[in-house]
Amino acid sequence: MKKWEIAVIPGDGIGKEVVPAALDVLKTVADVHGGISFSFTEFPWSCDYYMEHGKMMPDDGLETLRNFDAIFLGAVGNPKFVPDHISLWGLLLKIRREFEQVINIRPAKYFRGLSSPLTEPRDFDFIVVRENSEGEYSEVGGRIHRGEDEIAIQNAVFTRKGTERAMRYAFELARKRKRHVTSATKSNGIFHTMPFWDEVFADVKRDYPDVATASYHIDALAAFFVTRPHTFDVVVASNLFGDILTDLGGAIMGSIGIAPAANINVNGKYPSMFEPVHGSAPDIYGKGIANPIGQIWTAKLMLDHFGEEELGALLLQTIEDVTADGIKTPDLGGTATTKEVTEEICRRLRKRG
Amino acid sequence: MKKWEIAVIPGDGIGKEVVPAALDVLKTVADVHGGISFSFTEFPWSCDYYMEHGKMMPDDGLETLRNFDAIFLGAVGNPKFVPDHISLWGLLLKIRREFEQVINIRPAKYFRGLSSPLTEPRDFDFIVVRENSEGEYSEVGGRIHRGEDEIAIQNAVFTRKGTERAMRYAFELARKRKRHVTSATKSNGIFHTMPFWDEVFADVKRDYPDVATASYHIDALAAFFVTRPHTFDVVVASNLFGDILTDLGGAIMGSIGIAPAANINVNGKYPSMFEPVHGSAPDIYGKGIANPIGQIWTAKLMLDHFGEEELGALLLQTIEDVTADGIKTPDLGGTATTKEVTEEICRRLRKRG
Ligand SMILES: CC(C)[C@H](C(=O)O)[C@@H](O)C(=O)O
Ligand SMILES: CC(C)[C@H](C(=O)O)[C@@H](O)C(=O)O
């Protein structure tokens, strides 16, 4: 029996509520199904940790994480006390970058039991493949002058390698799905990198004649996520565009609180990291009403990653059943607590056996 | 009686259909209301022009436009024949940049007679103030290496002056409205420029203690445009974020085809330019079914700019009445042609007198 060693970083805010919930679910999955077991090791790295130690994680933090099979993360950020660019670049973005988690996978689908804010959501079901290692998120740049003459420059850096890798991942994924890839571009406004993005897309698609494609500027595409989300299958996007599109994906599902994500290391050198799309939501932290579904669906992506796709599918179906039966947190229009939703999911997993 | 000299650039695709429609409406406004008149001078600058002359406009194009009171533009782009970054940077973006049209104003509101794709659009009514001169849209950057080692770099350049100017414009505008400004940021991911953006926002807001503020990361904000658009009044955003948010604004209204925009020169040195948010839509061009409302609402923004706010308000009300009465193009679920919508608007303007 394979025992998966998992590093757990609840992080900040509601991360500290929804991560334990998702661990309960994973433990239940392991209890019920003989073939799998987990060992969880928790790390308190977070903004609280920063306030005590002046850094988001210890100097050997990455070294420590490196030997785990996966990292299971809640949310990072507490902007009242630590500026976001410090907390994120000191932990979340650092791990994504240093562990070469070059692909970020973010599914969105019409979810039974949720009220989508769209009048006609149809049965949408797409996955955004987000380039996760470069692009607009870069430390390259800086400032010059002070006061009224100050200038800040941000370099977006797109490599052929990184761009092509994300696109190939998207095409491969599309082959397991509906064989359609949409490219998120902005070659009409972003002068240097987006025409480059388009060229690489044209090159890569030549290798996948069996996959249909479309290409839209990010402004139009964001609008299409609202007006016709059911027309997408796999969407490949840069780091920033993927970030924006996936929050929109969460919104049209009915809550950002349910959107899951996986940061995938594709070369096998480092662990992958699983973390939901939502943030730490300091405003609702501590009330016991945080929606655990994003984190639990994220656990499903981790199961898939471990090759346990059947268990993953079962878990997703259970979450949807529970939601469809109205057992949901206030953000979804329900009255259940984090704990009640979690227990109901575990109960049904046990019952199903 | 003031005679306004207007340079008209229909541009490409449906621009050539909706601009004449909007001119008919403006002529009717002038006919009916004694105090105003227009002189229109048309320029054929477009992708067609490019294919004939190898450039989007003549070398002295800007010199020619410079002495007009305003530029009224349709849409630019025909990517099948001219790459977008050529056509746009050769005309639309060039005019915005060279004529120091540093602010882009884009209203969005719940529009009577439209079916918003949102189940609960409420009575939303906001204006996005988009920084229009710098930021992510820059010619600074380039490429190095070829083939598999190729790298493309895009510099986003934010100056204190440009950033502050957009923000002050937003705060001044908010004072004439509901006294609320939302800042679109991404200081948790975009390392250099967005923390700078936040600092400038904090500085500027100190001068407007009577205006309430909020600040959201672009990913969350895009989602909020879908989940609670009625909570926004004025939104200030960078060039790219403003671009994305305003297409979303169009989407939640029920059609990108109705969203208007104004590119404002604030120092009085050059004309301002009025152009709708939508593009040239080559796929529907020539069918006579393009929605003229974006262009006509844009004409209303031009009237406002000329100080004719009352006429502007009357025009907007007339458009809404016609839409509410079901006289609308297919993109809005109607069966009317461009011409029928336009004629009905003119007829009612005349009747109202
Ligand atoms: C055509 C394109 C360059 C332009 C932009 O991105 O500014 C358009 O999308 C707009 O919003 O006016
Ligand atoms: C917290 C932030 C840096 C992060 C991002 O922008 O990548 C988040 O929005 C996400 O999508 O995971």
TrEMBL record, chains A, B:
EC number: 1.1.1.83
Database matches in SUPFAM superfamilies: Isocitrate/Isopropylmalate dehydrogenase-like
Reaction(s) the record says it catalyses: (R)-malate + NAD(+) = pyruvate + CO2 + NADH
UniProt keyword list: Manganese, Metal-binding, NAD, Oxidoreductase
Cofactor: Mn(2+); Mg(2+)
UniProt-listed InterPro entries: ICDH/IPMDH, IsoCit/isopropylmalate_DH_CS, IsoPropMal-DH-like_dom, TTC_DH
A Pfam cross-reference name: Iso_dh
Domain Isopropylmalate dehydrogenase-like, chain residue ranges per copy: 5-345
One GO MF term: D-malate dehydrogenase (decarboxylating) (NAD+) activity
Family label: Belongs to the isocitrate and isopropylmalate dehydrogenases family.
Stated name of the protein: D-malate dehydrogenase (decarboxylating)
Species the sequence originates in: Geobacillus zalihae
Lineage, top ranks: Bacteria, Bacillati, Bacillota, Bacilli, Bacillales
